[in-house]
Amino acid sequence: MFRAALLDTTKLAEFEPDGTAYVKTGDIPAEWLRDASAQVRPYLYYAKSDPDVRKLLRAIIAREAKYVQVDPYANAFTLDYRVWEQKFELDSLAYPVTLAWSYWKATGDTSLFTPDFANALDKILDTMQREQDHPKNSRYTHKEMAVNGVGRPVGYTGMIWTGFRPSDDACYYNFLIPSEMMAVVALGDMSEIQRAVYHNVIKAHAAKTLRDEVQRGIQTYGLVMVPKYGNIYAYEVDGLGHAILTDDANIPSLLSAPYLGYTTTDDKYYQNTRAFLLSQDNPSYYTGSIARGIGSYHTPDRWVWPLALIVQGMTATAATEKQDVLAQLINSDPGDHLLHESFDPNDPKKFTRQDFGWPNALFSEFVLTMNGTASIPMGNTDDLEFRSE
């Protein structure tokens, strides 16, 4: 399974005449900014010693920079740079930044930070700043969102409005806390890149200022007291007192917060949240005879996603939990030795997405880190301020 999963992205990535590389998501003929960034993360572990891997990663990052400049509100694009979907997902702006930062830190190579990539960073920051006050500054609408495509009312929180979840489903409340967490990490990465590589102190300060405002919003509006668990992170809030307490398998998720680099596994609020998420109190947590884990409203009811299982394993602190998750993943193999989008936890031969690159890449990373390879971070948030009791 590891061998098949690790090599899966090589079947989906191809160099193009413009010097970039295109990464198809799998059985859909398009590239998602999120998926492509995640699909190549395992190759970061080989990039320092392999020039061919470095070349591929730089080419993928260069293409993502061009996509962002085509339309920062789009989440997926075709091979010829046309918009496949214009679902504004905050994490789609964060993923290319964290991938570039991680590549830099893994290799020491700054050649990817071209003027074109700088233009993409400007577009990302401008869009995030605009969407910080969506009702006042934005004209973005989408037919799949509530209230005739406009979305439900929100209050000003300092966080960044987003239209869609990383599952590609419309948000119910438009401050999606896991995506806000990832934005905090990405904005910190952006600030460091602007300061250390482009030597632009003004842009570095602007990114850090936005990061700190989003972080204050998360800590002010994103934590909800639940008597059984204490303060836990909500999945979505509106800044008007409403919140959804659940999680979704797609990443960024609440369960993935330490994997994203936002917090640590021993943080009290994360531990509280994790206890809730991996319990029957979480409406998206499902159990079966083969597996138990978090699903998604994007797929059949009560089906488990390998993505969520892998994240549980990667954020577990006990070796026994990691081994238990690995056993569930191995038992979920329907016979092709690949991981899929979701499956029936009582019958893994029933699954969605025959060809889906993302969970295979994440599984590769899980096995690598389980076997003692040091994880490659997405960012450094050591200086963040978190709410105390």
Tell me about this structure.
By secondary structure, this protein is mainly alpha-helical. It has a domain at 9-280: Alpha/alpha barrel (Glycosyltransferase). The chain has helices at residues 2-12, 33-39, 44-47, 51-70, 90-107, 115-131, 134-137, 146-149, 177-196, 201-221, 257-260, 268-277, 306-315, 319-331, 357-370; strands at residues 13-15, 21-23, 31-32, 76-77, 83-85, 175-176, 223-226, 230-233, 236-237, 243-244, 285-287, 292-294, 342-344, 347-352. A hairpin with a 5-residue loop joins strand 4 (76-77) and strand 5. Helix 2 packs parallel to helix 5, helix 4 runs antiparallel to helix 5 (90-107) and helix 5 (90-107) crosses helix 9 (177-196). The longest helix has 21 residues, at 201-221. The model has no long low-confidence stretch (mean pLDDT 97).
* The CATH class of the domain at 9-280: Mainly Alpha
Poorly predicted spans: none
What's the number of extended β-strand segments?
A: 14
Alpha-carbon Rg, integer: 19 Å
Helicity range: 40-55%
End-to-end distance: 44 Å
Mean pLDDT: 97
The DSSP helix count reads 15
Indicate the overall shape.
globular
CATH fold-type name of the domain at 9-280:
Glycosyltransferase
- Name given to the CATH architecture of the domain at 9-280: Alpha/alpha barrel
Largest sheet: 3 strands, antiparallel
What percentage of the residues does DSSP assign to strands (E)? 5-15%
Oligomer: single chain
Strand order of the largest sheet: 3-4-5
The SS-based structural class is mainly alpha
Q: How do the SSEs run, as a string of H and E?
A: HEEEHHHEEHHHHEHHEEEEHHEEHHEEH
